[in-house]
Please model this.
Amino acid sequence: MLKQTMKKIINALICENNEDRVFLSEIEFDAKIRNIKKIREFSANPLLLVQQIRKQKKSHYRTESSPDEIDADFNLLIPAGVDPHVHFDDPGFEFREDFYTGSLSAAFGGITTVIDMPCTSIPPVTNLENMMTKLNVIKKKAVIDFALWGGVSGTSFAQNENIEKNMTELAEIGVIGFKTYLISGMKEFTSLTEEQLTIVGKIAKKLDLPVAVHSEDKDIIETKRFEFQSQGRNDISCYCQTRNIEAEVLAVEKVIRVARQTGAKFHIVHLSSKKGLQKIEQAQQKGIQISTETCPHFLAFTQDDFEKMGSVLKTAPAVKFAEDRDYLWQGLKNGSIGFVATDHAGCIPKIEKNTGNIWTDYGGIPGTELMIPFLFSEGFLEGKISLKKSIELVSENAAKFYRLFPQKGSLKIGTDADFAILDLTEKNKIEGKNLHCKGKYTPFEKRTFSIKIEQTFCRGEMIVSKNNFLGGKSLGNFL
Model:
């Protein structure tokens, strides 16, 4: 690899420390951050400050750029995003998404690190051989850096596989944790019983890696689904009643029991309910190693929206109610929810979202391209969370949790030069047709966000600039 020349970004606003203070800065970098020079500190409201400075760009604040410098134009520069929960479907389901289109979409969203799930590829990543099969395919397509989840499936138990051997070999090659399900609709990756989850927890404890759990109660969901289907009902209300709050709460309680018993780190993915979060908060206060994430769609939409827009908003779990949405925002603010992830899982909407039956419509939405614009627009700019907290939630916290920090998720000297530059003053009307993933749909259709991603840098390379892709395949590294 050719040695990169030193580059400089000037007129960039960066946020540091525990307060919403910003610094007008210059950043020197090649593949790594080499120096950050703080020109001036501001303690005013960051948004008002950006608006004020941009109106006065020709004032004494501005450093005039030379041809070899990149002018950030008084936009906000943050450590590029980390999306720790994506389904890029490669290999096996490339008609929905492949690693090139998925990682390209992430790059346009200011994200330079994704962690791909083990369950929506063929074969699923449940052993070393399967992982190498996947890695050999996707490493040729990755636009940005990536890590991988390993998985433990009920299928592996049913086939009497050596679970500990599989998990150990996956840990040795570098998976960041193990994904499991308490209910699953995938034939190749079935759900675990509480007893099986306990076995996984004990092994994960030895390996010092987290276990991520799709936490919905199988008995409740299957019983209610059979009841409604027997009545010939296939409406959205039935789907929501099937994947209800009780189903999430009972499953969360099961995970907490296993976490307490094994001492392992357990992580609840895509949390959707207030009562589920309250159970997690109570367990956290008791010192049980339980953490969680939530997704933009649970922070933005309710079942009323689901009824109006239809299966474009169908996910598992289903969106809940206004009090759940509002309590999840509080969890982000107080830290009981560690970070935001997207559960990016697109499809061919004209076919798979329009089967005429809620039970057979595909459950999943693309989201990685919109995570940062959503959170900064409807979180920070709406006053729900601070600027520093917003940066932590889309970048720093996930990097720390999955031991990618400080190489990822930071602006520390000597770490990867991964940046996203955000214009906090430009309106951006969302249209699914403009997304860079394969699934050209979104529940945020026609919604206007108040920020725009201007540039994305991965290890010093500008790969996105003003809606143009400047990178190429194979740029991304396996972390």
